[in-house]
Amino acid sequence: MGSFCEEDEVEILGHEEGFWGSYYEAKIIKQTEKEDEYLIEYKTLLEDKKVTGEGEDTVITDGAEKVFLQETVNVKLIRPAPPKVEVSKFKIGDEVDVFDYEGWWVGRVTRVSEIRNKYTGTVKIRCYVWFDSTGEEIDYQFDKLRVHQEWTDNGSWVKQEKKTRNKRKFVKDSSVLQQETKRIHTGMGTGIGFPSWMLIPGVQQCRL
Predict the structure, then answer these.
(1) Does 173 score more than 60 pLDDT?
(2) Could you please report the per-residue DSSP string of 79-129?
């Protein structure tokens, strides 16, 4: 568990069903009256609301200008923004984070393809990524990927080595993560949370 200051760049662990294990870019607005809670503002998640009036006459209604979503979250769901790691390519088996549907999702590279433009000679790299969380393989442009890093208890970042994840072990680990994040979120009390209609990688859904 760490402490943060106003305007710190952070990432928030997805803490509703369908979002466990994903992270969303945000910044710290302020610490609440509770030592283990912060008000944060997401950088990619939006909500529609209109604010009129001032003070006690303030009225908030939906359907107007878009503003970034704010939420009160437990410190256990917050980590610093990871440092950028420059890479020129990814290899099969590399663990990566993929930016999709406004957040970062962990997966591993299964295939890499290069497409050369016969007119300009430029090469575009696409990486196929396997997601244990959804059991899907999806291809992405190279610039949608970053090196996967883990934030450790001693306050340092560790790059993940190339490996083949044991599927049975992942299911067990995923279950533990879901229970832990659900417990934290339930204990937080109020909080607007993530919209239930948001998407997960490779799955198209509609808001009802």
Answers:
(1) no
(2) EEPPPP---S---TT-EEEEEETTEEEEEEEEEEEEEE-TTT--EEEEEEE
